[in-house]
Amino acid sequence: MHEHYVVAIGNAIVDIIGRCDEAFLARHGCAKGSMQLVDWTRTAQLYDAMGPTVEISGGSGANTSVGIASLGGRAGFIGKTADDQFGQIFAHDIRTAGVTFTTPPAPEPSEPTGRCLVLVTPDGQRTMHTFLGVSPRLGGGEVHPALVASARIVYLEGYLFDRPEAKAAFRQAADIAAKAGRQVALSLSDAFCVDRHRAEFQALIRSSVDILFANEAEITSLYQTRSFEEAAGRARADTRLAALTRSEKGSLILGEGRAITVPADPVSKVVDTTGAGDLYAAGFLFGIAAGRDLEAAGRLGSLAAAEIISHIGARPETKLADLARAKGLIA
Amino acid sequence: MHEHYVVAIGNAIVDIIGRCDEAFLARHGCAKGSMQLVDWTRTAQLYDAMGPTVEISGGSGANTSVGIASLGGRAGFIGKTADDQFGQIFAHDIRTAGVTFTTPPAPEPSEPTGRCLVLVTPDGQRTMHTFLGVSPRLGGGEVHPALVASARIVYLEGYLFDRPEAKAAFRQAADIAAKAGRQVALSLSDAFCVDRHRAEFQALIRSSVDILFANEAEITSLYQTRSFEEAAGRARADTRLAALTRSEKGSLILGEGRAITVPADPVSKVVDTTGAGDLYAAGFLFGIAAGRDLEAAGRLGSLAAAEIISHIGARPETKLADLARAKGLIA
User: Fold this and answer.
1) Crossing angle of the two packed helices A85-96 and B85-96, in degrees rounded to 10
2) d(CA B173, CA B156)
3) How high is the ipTM of this complex?
4) Which among A53, A71, B163, B318 is placed 20 to 30 Å from B67, CA to CA?
5) Residue A79 domain flag
6) pLDDT in tens, A113-167
7) What pTM was computed for the model?
C-alpha cells in the first residue's frame, strides 16, 4: 500500500446546515458553539424547526482528511456509513476529494448514516447537534491494519469516545500505529466531549498521543482550570507536541522545547466557523507529515482554517495547495 | 383554503451541485447550459466523475414557489417525491420556506426522489443532468383541486411535458384553473425541452396559457427562428402576456399592448446561474398576483434573479422581501 501522510478515524457525518438567529438557539435550548449528541426525536424536532438547509459532507476527522488531500498530501479515512443516500453522498465526496476511503457501508437493515444539524448564527458561529446513526458501529475489524500502518500519522477524533464500539476502534488504531512506529494525533473535538471523558482522555494523552489538538475551551476543560496558560503548561508536560487553537488569536504550538505563537490568517468575513479546527489540524498535520518545521505547520493550519470559515460548510471550496503556493508556504 | 398567489406544479428535485471546468464538459459530452434527462447509469457515471458536491433542494417550479414565499406571497407546490432521504430534504426545505406542500411521497418501494447533477463552470454557467426518478409519477389524482383553484395563478413548468403521466397532471391543473377563472402561467424550461414538444407547446400556449415565460433560446426554438425579434413578435400574437428573459440584457415584457424592456439587476459576481429563470418567474408572478404593473413585476423578477445567481444553489439565501423593500419595490 502507498504510504499516506495521515489516516483519520472518525464519525462519517453529513452536515445539514441552516441559518438561524440567537433567539432560535435560546428558544430551543441550544448551547451556542457546542456539539451536542441528540437522539432521533430531538433531531427531527430541531430539523422541522430550523428552516431550509444545505447538505454538505462533514465529520471532523473526514474534514481533516479532505483538507490534507486538498493540500496535496495523501490521506485516508476510516468511518462507518449506512447504505443510504446520505452514505452515498459521504462516500462520493470524500473519494472524489482524493481521500482513500474503503470502509464498507453497514449492510441493510441498519441505522441511517450519521448527520449533524449545524445552526449558523449571523456572527458565523456554529452550534451542532449530531445524530450519530450507524457511525459508531465501527468495529475493530473495520480498522484496516495495512491502511493504518501506512500512515505517517494516525489521527483520531475525540468524538469517537462517545460510543464504546467506536472507542474500541480508536484504541485498536492507536495500537497498530504504535507497533508500526507511527505517530498518533488526537483532537479533543469539543469541551463537552472532554467533560464526558476527561480521565480517559488524560490517560490516553499521557500513554499514546504524540500530537494533541485542542481549542481553549477544550484544553481548559481537560485540565479543569480557567487559565489557558495553566492548561497550556500542563499540555506541554503531558505531550510531545500540542497545537492549541484560539480562534482569531491564532494558535500556540508547544513542542521541541519551544512555545510558538502563530497568528490567524485574516478573513474578510467569517461566514461559518464549522470545520475551523478540523482544517487547522489538516494544515498542521500536512506540515508535520511533510517534514516542515513547527512554525510552517502552524501557518498551514491558519491558512486552511481561514479558507474554511469564509464559506458555508467544512470542506474546502478552493484547492488549499493553490492557496498555500500563492503564500509561499509550499513549493 | 386560503387563497394562494401562485401554485406551481413541477418535478420535485434535489440539486447535486459541483464545480467543473470546460474540459470536463467536453470530455463527458455535456451540452453547456442545457438540461438533459439522463438514465441511472449515466447519472452514476457523471456523479462518480464530478468531484465533491453540495446538495440543495431544487426543481424549477419548486424554486419559483419558494421565491414567491420569500417575497412574502402565499405559494404552493405540487410534485412527487419518494419516501427516502432526498424526499425528506425536499419536503423539509420547501415547507420550512413557507410553501404549502401536501403531495404525499410515493409509497415504498418506488423509484428514488429525482435529482439533478448541476455542473457549474468558472463563468457561473450551469449545465444540468436530471434523473427524474419518481417525480413524473404525479397522477391526476395528486393535483389537489382545491389547492389549484385557490391560486390566482397556476404555474406549470415545461419540464413536466417530458413524461406522459406528468403531462396529464399538467393538463388537469390547467383545466381546474380555467374552470375556476384563474390564470395559467407556463415556463418553457429549456430549449431542448421545447424541441421535444414544440407542436404541443404551441397549441397549449394558444389555447390555455395566460402568462408565458421563456429565455431567448427557448422562444427562438419554439418558433424555429434565429431572430429573437421575430420570436418575440410571434409570442406577442399568441399570448396575453409574455416575459422573455435575456440574461444580462434583462427581460422583454409583452402585454397590455406594450413592449417593456426591464434591465437586469447588477451582480458583483455571477457565481451560479442555476435558478435564474425560476426566480425571475417568482418575482414577476409575485408582482402580477399582487396587482402590480408589468414594469414593477419585471423589476421584481430582475431582483430575485440577481440574488439567486450571486451564490450556489437555486433557493434564496436572503429574504427577497427585505431586498425588495430596500429597493422600494414593495412597501
Assistant:
1) 100
2) 8
3) 0.93
4) B163
5) yes
6) 999 999 999 999 999 999 999 998 887 778 999 999 999 999 999 998 888 877 8
7) 0.95
